[in-house]
Amino acid sequence: MANFAEELWNSIFTPGTSPQLVIATHISFVLLACCLVWLIYSTRSVHFVALLVIAVLLWATVTWFIAELQHAKLKDNEVLAREIDSEKESGKENEAKTLKGQESSEKKPQGRSTATKTVNKTTKSRKV
């Protein structure tokens, strides 16, 4: 038991889910459900039934989220830093290509449009 508690405490400071954290989560929800069932039995209150439904839905949601975290590949800070650096380098290359494209488009003549305005049944137009 002491080993479980120590590993649970250490799992708090590591990213992702650990088996100890998952077990502790399920134990907590089982104890909560047991308490709510006992309160429903002893008080016959609809409010505790609503709380039990909410607790079971929360338990299902947390279980789903834990499963999704285990399927996702978590990355270290070093891996993330390398990815950001590579994105910055590719971003600079894309920016240079975009600037070259803008220079060529600036050389092309731009089309002109006219705006019309009707005042007192008279139409006035001007170049924009």
TrEMBL record:
Residues 111-122 have a biased composition (Polar residues). One of its GO terms (biological process) is vacuolar proton-transporting V-type ATPase complex assembly. The keyword NADP does not apply. Keywords: Membrane, Transmembrane, Transmembrane helix. The chain crosses the membrane at residues 21-41, 47-67. Residues 85-109 have a biased composition (Basic and acidic residues). One of its GO terms (cellular component) is endoplasmic reticulum membrane. This is LAME_0F18030g1_1.
